[in-house]
Amino acid sequence: MSKTIATENAPAAIGPYVQGVDLGNMIITSGQIPVNPKTGEVPADVAAQARQSLDNVKAIVEAAGLKVGDIVKNHRVCERSERLRNRKRHLRSLLHRTQRHLPGTFLR
């Protein structure tokens, strides 16, 4: 049985989806937009947007009672490969050293 994960520490869903789903032995988070949930603002630069998106994922993971150390897969979408560096930089700072090479997908 699945359970919806919802937190005020990540942006509310802007469509017909939920922030995350707890499946019992794993959780799945929806893709996160770079909106600050407290202000509703989007940071101006790409690096700050990547940071905000990942902070939103962290908030959903923590709302499920887990830690970022429990993340085992990361799927990211960037429109340009040069922007991926900013996202990777923040991802490395967020995750534990042993998680820095998680399976991921890059769509171009």
TrEMBL record:
One of its GO terms (cellular component) is cytosol. GO terms for molecular function: deaminase activity. Keywords: Hydrolase. The keyword Hydrolase applies. Its EC number is 3.5.4.-. It is an enzyme of class 3 (hydrolase). This is Endoribonuclease L-PSP. It comes from Escherichia coli. The lineage of its organism: Bacteria, Pseudomonadati, Pseudomonadota, Gammaproteobacteria, Enterobacterales. The gene is ridA.
